[in-house]
Structure formats: structure tokens, C-alpha cells
Amino acid sequence: MRHPLLLLLSVVLFVSACRKNSFIDSPNALLEFSTDTLLFDTLFVSTGSVTQSVKIVNANDQRLRLSSVRLMGGAGSRFRINIDGKPGPDANNIDLDAGDSLYIFVAVEIDPRSASLPFVVQDSIEVDFNGNHEFIQLEAWGQNAHFLRNQTVTGNTVWDNSLPYVILGGLQVDTNASLTIPAGCKIYFHADAPLLVDGTLLVNGDHYDSTRVVFRGDRLDPPYNGFPGSWPGIYFRGASSGNHMQYAEIRNASQAVVDAAPPAGTIPKVLLEQCIIDNSYNAGIIGVQGSLQASNCLISNCGSDIELGGGGYYQFFQCTATAYSNNFISHTQPVLSVADVIQQAGLLLTGDLQAGFTNCIFWGANGSVDNEVSVSKQGNKVFNVSFTNCLWKAKTAPQGVTTAGIISNQDPLFDSVNNFVPYYNFHLRTASPAIGMGTSTGITTDLDGNPRPAVKPDLGCYQKQ
To answer: What's the pTM value of the predicted model, to 2 decimals?
Structure first.
């Protein structure tokens, strides 16, 4: 004879199994979507596709049948969908067990258009079940561009700013050639695309946001738009000379600016004025026996902001070098490293070093660095490093350097620092100890193009207005 309790348990399990295997047909059935809109932000035409996904969950305790999932634009849409592993544009009678889910993968490609302004492509995905019609909105912004793949600039070349430039595979400025880039031009580099300068690079940006010249990676869709190391960087090589970059932004590179093997003399091989170098994975500025002058420049949140090694000739005026640990880069290296030696390809290179830093800020926080300025002398050649009216964070002051008017270990009080968003505004607050502490340099504007006083300017790249 069967035990009554066992019989009751069998009935309960049977009923429960039947319930889970039966279909819910109520219009009040619950279907959950991970999002109701997919936005593909600024795609460049003909460069390929970006893929995103939507997760759909049957939130009921019974099976649910999706009568149809379809791309409203059909086969002619710019979008393409894959429904749980099966290519679209549609699928019918999809059964989801209780608590089960499926993914819809969405990709988009935008063909070239004649318009120079950004344009929008839209569509939607309709999901039908139990008489309900749910929609997932699809929206992609695209833009035409000049596409350059593995190209070499010869002669004197002048670009225009009517369309952005997308660099694939790399761009080289040949020896004895020059490339001039006008205000407002935007240049986007693929992950495999460095800018190699053997000739001369002239960047003529202006102080408005719309007229600055931007160098950055070509992935503009989140989260990739914020990733450091998205493209290699700009390399000024041995034969290069006469380079001038004004009001340029260089973002998300591996090594943003590399200056190697200068020409003879003390004329800067690379002149940077009112430039922003941000979020470079390895370093913002690297000098290898280089020759570089920078004024009113912001170098921020790089693996190492400024690395100068093997000797060389360097001058920095009114610059801010700062770094904070964030979700992308941990602050473990000084914002400024200066040395008369460097190891390269197994060889130890050394040379004369002349480096001067005037009215600059060297600061970092939220990391593991006590001394934000590191200076090292190992060779026996000329070594002349000076800091004049600078603010730095230094538990131990650098040795073997000339200093005057130094402010040590006082927070510069930047306007806003949020390492989690992340959001940074490196203008100075009213109470900043850097205000009015500079010496006269003859520089009459700041990074924003605002005026600087001739006497007692603020330290760093921004003048408090």
C-alpha cells in the first residue's frame, strides 16, 4: 500500500511539472527586456559594424511563446539581427521555458553618403506575444569621412576640415614632406594605426572646442570610447624637424607623443602649445634623447604623464601634469620622470641633458606614488635640470637639480576630480595655492586662450579668470 504522504508529494510534483510545461496565454504575461533602446553612437561609414545585444527573459512560472520577433525594416534595413543564434530579419514561434531567456544580437553598417553632417539611421525590433506588441528601438549615428589606409604623405600636403579623417593601418609623413592640419579637423585612428612623422607635422588648431584638432581612436561607442591604448600614438622619428602642434587634443593612445633623436642644436624638434594629452595607457610624452618644448599643455591620467630619458633638450612652461587612479589606469608611476640614461633594445643610451620646468604643476593622488617628480643622473655628461616656481607632490625632493620658488605637497585644488564617473576639470579653484605664484615668462594666454597677466601668473596650464 502506498504511503499517503508519498502519494500527495507525487501529485504536487506532477501538477508543478504540468504547470511549467504548459503555456501562459494571458496578455498580462511578463516579458523582461534588458533595454528598450540600442544606440550606436557615431559610426564611420564602410569601416565595419558594431554589435550590441538585448536580453529577453520569460519572467513567468509557465512557458511563454513568442509568436514573432522581427526587424521592422526587414531585409532592406541597415541593421541586421541574430535571434538566439539564428540570423534574422525575423523568427516565429519561439518557446521560452519559465525563467528562460534569449538574446537578440544587433549589428549595423552605414553606407557612404554625400552629406558631410552626421546623420541618423533608425529602425526597431517588434516582439509579439499573447496579443502584445513590444518594441526595441534602434538608432545609429553615422558620418562620412576621408579614409586613409597605409598611406604615405609626400610633398607639402594640406588637409581640409570638411570631413573627419579615419586612419587604418597607419599614416607616415615622409622625409622632407610636410602635413598641415587645419583648425577643427578630427582624426580617428584604428587600433593598428600609428602616425609616423619623418618629415614635418603642423597642427593649426584654435582655442574653441569646435576648432581644436582632435587625435583619438576610432571606436566612439561606449565603453570603448573611454579605453586607453585604443591606438598607438604619434611618433616623431629621427629625421623629423620643425613640428608644431597648437590647440591639439591627443586622447586614448598607447604612447601619445614620442620624440626621438633630435636634429643638431637646441631648436625644439617638437613644439607643443595649448595641447591636451589625456588617458594614454603607457605615457603621455616620451622623450628619447629628444628635443621638445611645451607651453600651456595639460598631460593627464596617463600610465606615466611625461618620461624623458637618455638626455636631450626639453623646456616646459605653464604645464599641468597630473594623474589619478581610475577604472582604466592605476596611478603607479610618477607624473614626471627625467633621466640622462635610458635602456633601449638592450643598449644603455646616455647623453647631455638640459631640462627646464617653469610655472608647472606636478600632482597625483589616489595611487601608490609618493614622489611625483623623479630625476636620475647616472652618466657623466652635461646634466642641467631646473625647476622654477613649480608646485609638486614630493615626499623626498629630487636631488641634483636647481630649484627656486617651489611649493611642495600642497593640493593644487583642481575644480573637479571624480575617479568613478570619471570626470576631471583641472581648472584651479579660488583657494588654490597655485594662483598668482608664477614668474614672468612672456606667455600671455592659457590653455583656454584666456589672457595671462605679465606679472605673477598662476601655475599650470589654466589661468584663473
So the answer is: 0.87
Residue position matching grid coordinates 562620412: 144
145-428: CATH topology is Pectate Lyase C-like (2.160.20)
**Model pLDDT, residue 114:** 56
CATH topology of domain 22-142: Immunoglobulin-like (2.60.40)
CA distances from 428 to 127, 367, 409 (A): 52, 21, 16
Domains 22-142 and 145-428 share a fold: no
Domain ranges of the chain: 22-142, 145-428
- CB-based burial label for 242 (10 Å; 0-12, 13-18, 19+): middle
Residues of the chain with pLDDT under 70: 1-20, 48, 111-117, 263-264
| Amino acid at position 455, single letter | V
Per-residue model confidence (pLDDT) at position 13: 47
From residue 153, alpha-carbon distances to 182, 187, 216, 218 in Å are 16, 15, 19, 21
